[in-house]
Amino acid sequence: MVYLIAKGGFPIAFAAQRTYPVRKYMYIALCFLIAALPVFAESSELFLYVPTDDEMGRFMGMHQFLREWDENKRDVDAKALDALYSANVGKNTLNGLQFEAFLRNTKNAAVRKEVLDYLDAHALADPFAACLKKLYAAKELPQESGGTAARRYSYQDEEFDEDIDLFDFYETGFFDQKLGLLLFDNGWEQVSLNGGTPAKPETSAAPDVAAEGAAAAEGKAQDAAAAESKAPAAAPSVDAPSVESFYLIYGGGTSTMTVYCKKYARLPEAKIAEVLAAEPFPAKYEGWKAFGLDAKGILAGSGASKYIVAYGIGPDTMPGIDSGAFNAYLYDDKTETLYEMSASINFSPMNVNYPTRDRIYNYVLFNTLFCFLNK
User: Fold this and answer.
1) Beta-bridge mates of residue 40
2) Alpha carbon of 86 to those of 81, 107, 124, 226, 245: distances in Å?
3) For residues 319-356, b (16+ Cβ closer than 10 Å) or e, as one string?
4) Which residues contact 98 (CB under 8 A, 6 or more apart)?
5) Residues 90, 104: Cα–Cα separation, whole Å
């Protein structure tokens, strides 16, 4: 699979030898409104389907359209906003989730005013509309001296937002660029575990980690690594798989997101089920689900001989916190190597987005489909 990245890190192609000119999908807003029926649905709370190449093209086109609106390069009048909002918010489509992520993330005052006017004109008071109104009214809190680049917002000193960006993304690669993925564009703190080698791609906007931030992230990462071990580590045998891993973290306070990547080398395919069973997630999340996906749609060019998605949502280990973990496992049968990408995000009831967290979980779940192996 090949991603072509335009200046600024915007992917305009998703599958090898198949490109999607952005303009083709921006001349009419109706192309964003086409809904695809789910290939499968795993629960009443979250849905998932593998997008076709055409739907991925519409997804990329809509992303460019929204970015131009956010950058004051495109006008969206009341009629167009009504069409976009009505067709996407609350709908079980990839573009529906993306549009909601954009509305949460935008800091453009003109866009926010237009959205607020729309909510008021239609007397919308559902949980998503209520969250948007709070987000747009929240005030940025001063950053602590020597802290990270993370921004934090407060709504009436009662509810908070950690400004985790789930709209902007860029392509990056890890483990010598073997594992590729679309990574949400946040100021990630990076910690290497067990010899992992986080890449620093040129397209990445992530800053270098300050010493204090790195120390804090390392403590959390080591906790995560320790949690994965159900028994004391034994001396590795000659045939045991070697494991490299690293950890990205962003946020804090009332919401934190992490991305944890691992590489299992010298792992026979017959041992994959053992690796998945030994992970901490099935014990942490009641109803943890794991399933293999066929090489269809956008996964046809993933480069993986086996593609597995697993996820769960529910109470975190910290009392009162809700969380979700969303994993992709890509296996290369030629090298007998398994790559894992695990994205986790949690919410405190004091977070502005807590009432609509399932929609955020759902968008992060779809992100598990945007991984690939470079040959």
Assistant:
1) 48
2) 8, 22, 11, 46, 42
3) eebbbbbbbbbbbbeeeebbbbbbbbbbbbeebbbbbb
4) 59, 62, 63, 66, 88, 167, 363
5) 14
| Chain position carrying tokens 């986080």 | 198
φ, ψ dihedrals at 181, nearest 5°:
-160, 165
Beta-carbon-side half-sphere exposure of residue 138 (alpha carbons within 13 Å): 29
Whole-prediction pTM value?
0.80
What proportions of the chain, in percent to the nearest 5, are helix, strand and coil?
Answer: 35, 25, 40
Place of tokens 């998605």: 309
Q: Are 39 and 6 in contact (CB under 8 A)?
A: no
Cα 171 from Cα 150, distance rounded (Å): 21
Confidence check: pLDDT of 254 > 60: yes
What number of CA atoms fall less than 13 Å from residue 282's CA on the CB side?
Answer: 10
- Segment 267-293, tens digit of pLDDT: 999 999 999 999 999 999 999 999 999
Instruction: Pick the closest to residue 294 from 49, 95, 93 (CA basis).
Output: 49
Nearest residue to 81 via CA among 124, 51, 18: 124
Q: Please tell me the distance from the alpha carbon of residue 107 to that of residue 84, in angstroms, as a whole number.
A: 19
